[in-house]
């Protein structure tokens, strides 16, 4: 089919966006823009996750009603994505009317199909509120959640259960055969290993939490926030003839929800599972987890102020192999920005534009495109940093050619213009590879190199 439907997670509105959220969202946008460039009808869905105990608590701390609080923070996400030139087709909020309706229809179908136990039963266990999930004793370190360093609460409640265990065999088969493509491969193997250890039925409702969507078959319960949240993809996808989704792009922390629980929910109502779930790695800051408690959270604005919008998009994706964790540092990002963008692309464009302007060059033909399987394979397998290496290699070749041919020494105008045109042709073709990563810069360069050429201020001033 000539469509590409990708999603980011919907982010919790208990907090404003940081570079982790930014990473996933930019990656999804780059991929969507790439498919769009290839002539597909590519759509990207993002949004905010607004129900659940964590949000209710955060709102209370700010002395606000959950919805008021969510309205405010959700705007912060939207504004950030707009600033970063994220080309989403819809910014979905789990408090949106159409979503609430679809969640209730979805759950009713699950219930009617017998995928949910008829009556609630007692659940006792440990619940980590910041995680919004149950935890087992052996996941704790000194009685605390190792990620949040907080004690989980004792939880005892009557909950409705989804018969997840019924889907063990089916999920194992779908994932091992890549019908649900879980990537990177190491993650696929991890998920399969965990499935083979056995799946337990899971609680899907809360009896004592008002801030959620009422269960359609028992309105004294609200939907567990994760069940509500996962359905967002289907809310948009099913209404727009886009189901199944081509890709759920997520961080490694939430792979299990997306590759196991969510596909099982879909199977339970007779719908198709997503085609691919890709889990990327995590940023650490000086080797530590990024967290509000440690106080080391990096906000996207800090990067934008230093590197600009396209510079930020670039450094985040170029710095580390996409599936792996990476340690953020300003030194590393500065170096990357200066080497690839200021001294690389930016400098090359400036040099060629200067010489072209001086020689009165005008470009009136279409320069075509690179035929580059290597680049395509890399970007389609979400190896963004690898794809950028390929694109940068083209730039280095042009740089080398210029150093060898020394156009500034050539007096013959025809000969000079011919050479400059050949550089511009290579630059333009290469810029099209960069375009999904650097949409605004690419547009500027492409318009600078068509018609009569003029110098322009540096694209990427050194930092
Ligand atoms: O989990 N490095 O929302 P969330 C890289 N609402 N990426 C990071 C990161 C880091 N240090 N920290 C977070 C939720 N992320 C749920 C999702 S979807 C139906 C519901 C990114 O606000 C990464 O993509 O906690 C991770 O999966 C996501 O933020 C979690 O965002």
Automatic annotation (TrEMBL):
GO terms for molecular function: ATP binding; methionine-tRNA ligase activity. Coiled coil: none annotated. Keywords: Aminoacyl-tRNA synthetase, ATP-binding, Ligase, Nucleotide-binding, Protein biosynthesis. Residues 5-149, 152-352 form the Methionyl/Leucyl tRNA synthetase domain. Its EC number is 6.1.1.10. GO terms for biological process: methionyl-tRNA aminoacylation. It is an enzyme of class 6 (ligase). It holds the Pfam family tRNA-synt_1g. It comes from the Bacteria. PANTHER family: METHIONINE--TRNA LIGASE, MITOCHONDRIAL, METHIONYL-TRNA SYNTHETASE. Belongs to the class-I aminoacyl-tRNA synthetase family. This is methionine--tRNA ligase.
């Amino acid at each position: 089919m000539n469509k590409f439907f990708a999603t980011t997670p919907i982010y919790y509105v208990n907090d404003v966006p940081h570079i982790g959220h930014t990473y996933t969202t930019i990656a999804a946008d780059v991929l969507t823009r790439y498919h769009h460039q290839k002539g597909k009808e590519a759509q990207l869905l993002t949004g905010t996750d607004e129900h659940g105990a964590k949000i209710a608590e955060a709102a209370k701390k700010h002395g606000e009603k959950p919805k008021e609080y969510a309205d405010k923070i959700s705007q912060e996400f939207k504004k950030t994505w707009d600033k970063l030139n994220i080309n989403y087709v819809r910014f979905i909020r789990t408090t949106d009317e159409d979503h609430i309706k679809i969640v209730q229809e979805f759950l009713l179908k699950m219930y009617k199909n017998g995928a949910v136990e008829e009556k609630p039963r007692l659940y006792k266990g440990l619940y980590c509120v910041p995680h919004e999930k149950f935890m087992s004793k052996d996941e704790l370190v000194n009685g605390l959640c190792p990620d949040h360093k907080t004690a989980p609460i004792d939880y005892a409640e009557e909950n409705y259960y989804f018969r997840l265990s019924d889907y063990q065999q089916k999920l194992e088969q779908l994932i091992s055969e890549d019908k649900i493509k879980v990537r990177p491969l190491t993650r696929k193997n991890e998920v399969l290993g965990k499935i083979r250890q056995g799946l337990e039925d899971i609680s899907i409702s809360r009896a004592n939490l008002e801030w959620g969507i009422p269960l359609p078959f028992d309105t004294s319960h609200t939907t567990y926030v994760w069940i509500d949240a996962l359905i967002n993809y289907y809310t948009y996808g099913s209404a727009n003839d886009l189901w199944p989704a081509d890709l759920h792009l997520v961080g490694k922390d939430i792979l299990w929800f997306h590759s196991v629980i969510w596909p099982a929910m879909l199977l339970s109502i007779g719908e198709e599972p997503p085609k691919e779930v890709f889990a990327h790695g995590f940023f650490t800051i000086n080797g530590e987890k990024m967290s509000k408690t440690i106080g080391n959270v990096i906000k996207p604005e800090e990067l934008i102020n230093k590197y600009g919008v396209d510079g930020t998009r670039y450094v985040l994706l170029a710095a580390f192999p996409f599936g792996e964790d990476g340690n953020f540092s300003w030194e590393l990002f500065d170096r990357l920005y200066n080497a690839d963008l200021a001294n690389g692309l930016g400098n090359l464009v400036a040099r060629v534009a200067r010489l072209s302007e001086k020689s009165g060059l005008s470009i009136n033909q279409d320069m075509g495109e690179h035929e580059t399987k290597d680049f395509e394979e890399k970007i389609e397998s979400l190896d963004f940093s690898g794809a950028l290496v390929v694109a940068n290699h083209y730039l280095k070749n042009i740089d080398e050619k210029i150093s060898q041919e020394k156009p500034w020494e050539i007096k013959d105008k025809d000969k000079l213009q011919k050479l400059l045109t050949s550089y511009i042709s290579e630059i333009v073709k290469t810029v099209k590879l960069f375009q999904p990563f650097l949409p605004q810069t690419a547009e500027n360069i492409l318009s600078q190199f068509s018609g009569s050429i003029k110098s322009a201020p540096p694209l990427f001033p050194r930092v």
